[in-house]
Write a structure and sequence with these properties.
The protein has one domain (3-223). A hairpin with a 2-residue loop joins strand 2 and strand 3. The chain has eight helices and four strands. Strands 2-3-1-4 form a four-stranded antiparallel sheet. By secondary structure, it is of the alpha+beta class. Helices cover 68% and strands 9% of the residues. The termini are close together.
């Protein structure tokens, strides 16, 4: 049995992307870099909001302190989305249509339809899925002394997405050394910023909220049909 992560994307954004990809594959002489950068930024921000909505989960008993934690989380999400909107269009705009074609096709191969919805899909290791399920069960049975391990697992799940959606497709563009170093720095700083927020949540949330967080990520996991 194998598993995949499915992240919903807006169908209008997907249709825009497919139109651009078709232009690239047809050898259009009109530059597609600007529109491709814009639509991929839209899709990326939709994904960020889906995944990191978990950061906005408050303790079941809302207090002034939990509201402070939520404000911190909103700041993290905004930081990530600002980085996406700034650097994705900028990096894609560096290339002509011929160089963008394999990049667009790579992303297109990750698209999957499920229950009449459009998703970006990538594989997730079975052990990581089982680990998340086990943690959810342990929380339910009051077998965990703290929630730190829960959020360390969630960071692994998020980082898998960063690899599949950013690090690997970036290789298709074969950036020069200076640009590649810049983008790697942005990716590192942005991911560490979000992971530190998740780590903090391990000491800030109650078991019920931790369960909500695990279930939030489990909802993205689907068994692949043979």
């Amino acid at each position: 049995m194998s598993y995949s992560i499915l992240l919903k994307i807006n169908e209008i954004s997907y249709k825009k992307f497919e139109d651009i990809r078709q232009q690239l594959n047809d050898g259009s002489s009109i530059s597609q870099s600007k529109v491709l950068g814009e639509v991929l930024s839209e899709i990326a921000c939709d994904i960020v909001e889906q995944v990191f909505a978990v950061l906005l989960t408050q303790n079941h008993h809302s207090t002034q302190l939990s509201q402070k934690y939520t404000a911190e989380s909103e700041k993290v999400i905004q930081h990530i989305m600002n980085a996406v909107r700034k650097y994705m269009p900028w990096s894609i705009a560096l290339f002509g249509n011929e160089r963008l074609c394999p990049f667009a096709n790579y992303f297109s191969n990750m698209i999957k339809y499920h229950d009449e919805q459009v998703y970006v899909s990538y594989p997730i290791d079975r052990n990581l899925v089982q680990q998340a399920h086990q943690l959810a069960e342990q929380i339910k049975n009051n077998e965990l002394n703290d929630m730190v391990e829960v959020f360390q697992t969630l960071i692994q799940i998020v980082d898998l997405g960063v690899t599949n959606l950013i690090r690997e497709p970036k290789k298709c563009l074969n950036f020069n050394r200076v640009v590649d170093k810049t983008l790697n720095g942005v990716i590192h700083i942005t991911t560490q910023f979000s992971y530190k927020r998740l780590e903090k949540m391990g000491n800030q949330v109650d078991p019920n909220t931790a369960t909500d967080c695990v279930n939030h990520f489990l909802a993205f996991m689907h068994v692949d049909r043979e």
